[in-house]
Specification:
alpha+beta, 2 domains, 3 helices
Length: 273
């Protein structure tokens, strides 16, 4: 019996832990507050002892210079949960989203802030705790036993008008535009900026399913994510012209129009790989 127990423990230790896969901070009208966090992992993996923590600010001021970075906006315990058979574990509390949540929980994602989302073990902190006491961009307190994964979502470089971030993997900044969605590439493990508006198009919104591989790296105007801004992207802008909140709304103003066309033309050509 002892040998069998040790064998089970050994096999468990060889199974890689889950990791963050896709995050939506918000969407454009009519679907707002469409927040979710997705993990990807081995089917049947127990999430006991794991937590997701969201680090931002205390919403009382603007920017690290005013002393509000490093505050926990959410701590989501995953105790009692398990990675399902489809390998995608989805967290959200939005009745407007069509995807079924594996865990119904408020994510604490704020679309107007720089954010850090971490997956950790044995977290002993609570929402509202300040982990960066001197607001220098370095966590003074790490109230968990192990950091498993993390990503920083940046709409602006840290400074007077933006919070510090705390994960080495980084998405953004995005030319002054908010980042409403980001997802991890299956093949390269890199993070890419996604669409402003929630879309049922599986090429833009893959929450609740395993992410597809990415070709090259995303650049502004590369709507179809083929590593180039070209006729394919131009045709998408024209096909969605005048429509509200589609994947072709590159500039995030809520409607596909001249602003999106100008971005495609300005960034025409191959993306930097």
């Amino acid at each position: 019996m002892l040998h069998a127990a040790l064998l089970i423990i050994g096999i468990t230790m060889l199974v890689p832990p889950p990791k963050l896969a896709e995050i939506r901070v918000d969407s454009l009208p009519p679907l707002t507050n469409a927040e979710y966090i997705e993990l990807i992992g081995v089917a049947g993996f127990s999430l006991d002892g794991f937590s997701i923590v969201v680090i931002g600010d205390d919403d009382s001021a603007i920017g690290p210079a005013l002393g509000n970075s490093g505050v926990l906006e959410a701590v989501i315990s995953l105790d009692g949960q398990m990675i399902p058979a489809d390998r995608s574990f989805l967290i959200h509390a939005s009745p407007a989203l069509p995807m079924k949540a594996d865990l119904d929980a408020i994510t604490g994602l704020d679309d107007a802030d720089n954010l850090t989302v971490l997956l950790v073990r044995q977290c002993k902190a609570h929402a509202g705790d300040d982990l960066d006491l001197d607001n220098d961009g370095v966590l003074d307190i790490e109230p968990w036993s192990e950091l498993i994964d993390g990503v920083s979502i940046m709409w602006g470089a840290p400074g007077v008008h933006s919070e510090w971030t705390y994960a080495s993997a980084q998405v953004g900044p995005n030319g002054g535009f908010f980042i409403f969605q980001t997802r991890r590439c299956l093949d390269t493990d890199a993070w890419r900026i996604g669409s402003f508006a929630y879309s049922a198009d599986a090429t833009a919104e893959t929450a609740g399913a395993v992410n597809p591989p990415c070709v090259g790296s995303l650049c502004m105007g590369d709507i179809n994510q083929d590593a180039a801004v070209d006729a394919g992207d131009l045709s998408l802008v024209l096909a969605h012209w005048g429509q509200l909140g589609t994947v072709a709304d590159i500039d995030g103003d809520g409607v596909v129009g001249a602003g999106d066309l100008s971005i495609v033309l300005a960034y025409w050509g191959a993306c930097d790989l």
